[in-house]
Structures are given as structure tokens and as C-alpha cells.
Amino acid sequence: MDASLKPVASWNPDIWEDWERTRSDDIRRMILQDCGVPPELTNIAEQLFPDLES
Questions:
Q1: 23-46: per-residue pLDDT in tens?
Q2: What is the spatial distance between Cα 48 and Cα 9, in angstroms, rounded to a whole number?
Q3: How far, in Å, CA of 5 to CA of 19, rounded?
Q4: What pTM did the predictor assign?
């Protein structure tokens, strides 16, 4: 994951910690589905999950 990413402002800090800590694409997909795709992660979401609706 890109170490230069800054925390997502629209997410609770706990959610951002979960995103940063996990290495599971399934968990990241679930977070994006639950919380939406914020502008900060649009490129990553499109690369990892092209079928995910933002």
C-alpha cells in the first residue's frame, strides 16, 4: 500500500486504522462497501476493485 497516503477525512480514525493495518483485499473491499469510496482512495479502489460502485 502507498505509504504516502493521508488518512481519509470522511472516515472515523478507527476505520482508517483498520484499512492501514489489514493486508486483506476482502476486508478492504468490505470497508469500501460499508463506508463508500472517498476521493482519497478512488485510484486504489479502481485498481483493486474495478467492479465496485463508488
A1: 999 999 999 999 999 999 999 999
A2: 21
A3: 11
A4: 0.80
